[in-house]
Amino acid sequence: MGNALPDTFILERQDAGTFPFRLAGTRLCELFKREFRGRNFLDVWGEGHGSTTLGPRLNTVCVQGGVVVILADGETASGNLVPTEILILPLVHGQACADRFLGVLSLLKTPAWLDTEPIATLHLRSERVIWPDGHPHPALDSIDDRQAPFHPRVRHSRIVRSDRRQFRVFEGGLSTTGDGLGPKV
């Protein structure tokens, strides 16, 4: 886990189109040769994919609690490409929806030129959501639909303690049978 920390980031939802980085790991900043804190996650994406595809997806996940898996190409100013995978997990922070996200960007290849050329932009290849109980909840399509809060749909959780911190881990996604009731058999 400690090896992944430099690749992690935390986003905060400010409004439907603004997801600034609250924190960005050192390796992530080195790949792009810039500091991300305070910058909008959606602005890192080329061809409008941030605002047209990922913004709406993150807004849906805020309410429904899925995990976003993104395959993207990082592109340098000279046109070199490096394939990446990005995982974004919602974090509930005192509201009926997830207003923060924990993410990690992993390189699928590490080309030799990467140390000398920073990634300038990301290009979306594909994205999908892993839902806690195997499928989205069609009744909750936006952040404004809060009559059925985020928490009650998640049935099974456990407390994980690490040093002096404590986390609640919700079972779901690929680790369940699809009905949200337990592990696959």
Can you put this structure into words, describing what you see?
- The protein has two domains: 5-132, PAS domain (Beta-Lactamase, 2-Layer Sandwich); 154-185, no CATH class.
- It is 12% helix and 35% strand.
- The protein has two helices and eight strands.
- Strand 1 and strand 2 (21-24) form a beta hairpin.
- Residues 143-152 have low confidence and may be disordered.
Helices and strands, with pairings:
Blueprint: E1 8-12, E2 21-24, H1 26-32, H2 49-64, E3 67-76, E4 81-92, E5 98-107, E6 119-130, E7 157-162, E8 165-170
Antiparallel strand pairs: 1-2, 1-5, 3-4, 3-6, 4-5, 7-8
Keyword list:
6-stranded antiparallel sheet, 2 domains, mainly beta, Beta-Lactamase, two-stranded antiparallel sheet, 185 residues
Task: Characterize this entry briefly.
The chain has two domains: 5-132, PAS domain (Beta-Lactamase, 2-Layer Sandwich), CATH 3.30.450.20; 154-185, no CATH class. Helix content is 12%, strand content 35%.
SS field, number of helical segments:
2
Number of domains: 2
Round the Cα radius of gyration to an integer and report it: 17 Å
Query: How do the strands line up in the largest sheet?
Result: 2-1-5-4-3-6
